[in-house]
Structure formats: structure tokens, C-alpha cells
Amino acid sequence: MMFIKTISTIIGLLLSIIWTGSSAKSEYHNTVGNIKDKTTITVEPKETLYEINPELFGVCPMFWLEDDKAMEDGKIEQSLKDMKCRFLRFPGGTESDNFDWRTNELADKRRWPWKDGKDKMTIDKFIDLCRRIGAEPILCTNTEIAFFKNDSAAIELASEWVRYCNIEKDYNVKYWEIGNEPYYHSRFNAKEYAELLSKMSQAMKSVDPTIRIVAVGEWNPYYTGIKEEIEPKNIETAQELELQSEMGKDGYAERFHKLRKCKTQLFWWHEVMKTARGHIDAASIHWYYNLWELKDMTKTLNELYRIINPENEDKQIELIATEWSLHESVEMYGMERALTVGEAVFKMADGHVKKTNYWPLRCGGIHDKKGLLDMTPEKNPHANLHVLKFISQNIGDKRIYSDSTSDSIYHFATRRKKRIQIFVINRSGKRQNAEIKIKGKYDKGSVEAHAVSALNGIKDTDEVERMDIPAKNSERGIDISVPAYSIAVCSFKI
């Protein structure tokens, strides 16, 4: 979760010019064309593109919200089980850099979220939840204590956490994310962050050499980090303004952002990899996407992947997304919003992302509609949960090649053993017809199709309707009709 928000629009728009890209086929983009009112989707069941990691479906809860009272009715746990959540992050977003695991309290109670306590979710309760639902844990360490105190404080806090989890308790936590969003703050530039990460990695791996250290950065391969945007003479002023803003004082954030005037070519991921690559096992992005970013999400991620994994390097660094969601500035709600979430998780998978933590599980205020569950005592599901659950329950374990004649609907094809699943997302307010053309023979008697759509075709509702949809065999393949504001899956045996 971004406390200090940023949108690098100019740099982002330039990406399409800078990208080298690869072939359309390797990036699995829909091709554009027109065949009356019907889209033809061509599927090659035997052409496997990659393995789909079940940890693609994860969530980011917050320790101070998911307290004993919130968890006692079992609704949160059951929702996580229903969506087959396999990757769970702790202790949260911004609060991770203001958290002391030893006390389960904020390191600085003056700073957001200003709430903590022994009834909140502890590391032990979190690990117990992970084990009950079968999820891999990822822990986010406090790096900002290095700024407010010293490097030794951050190193000791993190390495002792590793000792507690993996030596004393035998929790076997593999993934350790170093800081939350240092690039969105004035406390570290990329080189300073990388140097701190290197020290922390060495200390943490001296306790348990099997752990995987996760560096964090923005999705944009050419983002610099906020500190690089501030003139050196203004750094101390900016840091004080930022602190005052985090303590909830009005007007300080605006004054802080006015100091961001510098232009630089010191890109965050380039600098981090140059300084600390040998200490990094995985690279995490946070992406609160706009709709124009969604269109080329896979292309962006492929470019980033090439930066963190250049051709001359033997060690492969895993790409994950520990926070992602539709940007809060996009006024889109209910099923209309949720369908972009479904499309995004598919596009991240096509962009080499193996694990994700959707943000948030729950959150109040302007962030509520982003959540999987609302903030009422009933914890009602948002459409975001319905869509992610639909995908995770129906997806195969292998991505197979597919292409289409139109960009009016989005498609994603998978296989599990001999059964094929073709997902189709219709984000429009009109029913869309699709013809699925299959390369090779298939069992025509095994065809079935179903969908989750907005109830009564109301695009901004969180109420959904689950339905079977007609799937008709033809000479060319299978004809389906996809309802407005819906995600559908057509499956069959080969």
C-alpha cells in the first residue's frame, strides 16, 4: 500500500518506445481483426508455454486489522480457502516498515497506522493461518529502522526474526522481503537500499542459508525512486516533511511533493541489480495499475524480467508481485473493476510473475472497494474475490498457446492433464460471441461452459450470478456466448 503515492506517467508512456519486446506469440497478446460480431479464439492444446504456479493466487492481509475478533467467525479463513490462496504476506504494506515483530507493535506509534496490540495478528498466529489454508508465507522486514536509528538495528531485527521463525520455531519461512516501498520515500535511493539489503541478506542467511531474499521495486523498469527526484540540498527538508505527513499532519505531503523536481537516469532496478544482485533471490514489484498500463502489462513485465535476468547471468531471479490492484484513482467499482483484476493476474503470469499477493484482503476508507472482503462485521465478498476465486478454482497447471482475431474480449488458455480451460473476459456492457477453434481432436461430448457475471448486468455491483452458458459444437470448433460484465470458462477433454 502506498502511503506516498506516485504515478510516473511520462516515463511510463515512453516505455512503448523504449521496449525491445519479443514476438507477439511469445508475449501471448491478442491480435486485432474483425469477423463480423464474432471473435475467433485459436487454441493449440499441445503447445505448452510455461507451468502455472499455484502461488499465483495470494493475498496481503494487515496484522492490525485481522485481529482475534475479526478471525473468530472463520469467514476470512474460509474465503482464503475458497480462492485457493497459496501465498500470504505479513505484517502488511506500509506498516511493515513501522513494525517490531518482537512486541507485535509499531516501532514508532506516532506513524501510520497508529494501531497495534497483543490482540492483533502475531507472527505465530499468521504462520498457523498459513498452515491451515496451505499457503506459503512471505515476511516483510523493517528497513526504515535503519534510517531512524542505524543499519545495525535493521540487521539485528531481521536476522533475529529469521532465528525465531526458522531455528526456534521451525516455521521454515523461505521468502523474506527487504522493506515495503523504499522507492516511494525520501529515505533511501536505489544504491543505499541495495547496500542495506546486501548487509541484511548476509546476516539473515548466516542464520538460515536456505532462505530467499526478496528485493522490492516499482513495476516500471525506468522508475528512479523518489529520493533521486530531490535535489541534495533539499533532502533533509523533504525527509522531515515526509515524517510529518506520516504522522497525519495536513499540508506536509503537498509541500514534500513540490520538492520532486530533479530528472535522472539512475533507474531503481538497474542500480539495485548492479549493487546487490548476488544477494537477491527474488525481485518483487508493487503495481497499482491504471487501465492504460493494463493494456501492455505483459510487455512491461517482460522488459523488467530482462533487466533482472540478463542473458549473461547464470543465476535466475524469480519475479513476484507482493502488492497489486487497480489504482484507487480509477473510478471503477464492483464487477467492472473485478474483471480488470482477472485480466491483470493472467497478464502477470504471461509476464514471468510466479507469485502474487493481491492488496488488500480488507481495508477501510477509499481503499475498501479494492478489498476481497468488505469491512462490515459480515465481511461480505467484493466482486474481486468472486473473480479471483473463479479463476483459481478452474485454472489448469500449464499455460497453452492461444490467439484471437479481436481485442474485444480477453482470453487465456490452460491445460490440466487432458482437460483444456479457455477463460474469456468480457468487460463490455454487451454480450460477446466467441468461436473457439481447436488445433487437433477433442471430445465433443465433454464440452461445458460456465461464467460469473454481474447480477442483472449492473457493472458496479458486487453481487454476481453464477451460470452455465451455452456451448455449441460446430464444424470449426465450439461457439459460446459470453454475458456482459463477466468472466467465463469453456472446458473440454482432448
Q: Give the overall form.
A: globular
The largest sheet, given as strand count, sense and whether it forms a barrel, is: 10 strands, mixed
Spatial sequence of strands, sheet with the most strands:
17-16-20-14-13-12-1-15-19-18
Query: Assembly state here?
Result: single chain
Radius of gyration: 23 Å
User: How many helices?
Assistant: 15
* CATH level 1 class label of the largest domain: Alpha Beta
Q: Tell me the span between the first and last alpha carbons.
A: 43 Å
CATH architecture of the largest domain: Alpha-Beta Barrel
Strand content: 25-35%
The low-pLDDT segments are 1-35
Number of domains: 2
Corresponding CATH superfamily of the largest domain: Glycosidases
Which bin fits the share of residues in helices? 25-40%
The SS-based structural class is alpha/beta
CATH topology of the largest domain: TIM Barrel
Task: Count the beta strands.
Answer: 20
Mean residue pLDDT: 92
How is this structure best described in words?
- The N terminus is likely disordered.
- The protein has a 10-stranded mixed beta sheet, with helices on one face. The chain has an 8-stranded parallel beta sheet with strand order 2-3-6-7-8-9-10-11.
- It has 2 domains: 116 residues, Sandwich (Immunoglobulin-like), CATH 2.60.40.1180; 302 residues, Alpha-Beta Barrel (TIM Barrel).
- It is an alpha/beta fold and 494 residues long.
- Helices cover 31% and strands 26% of the residues.
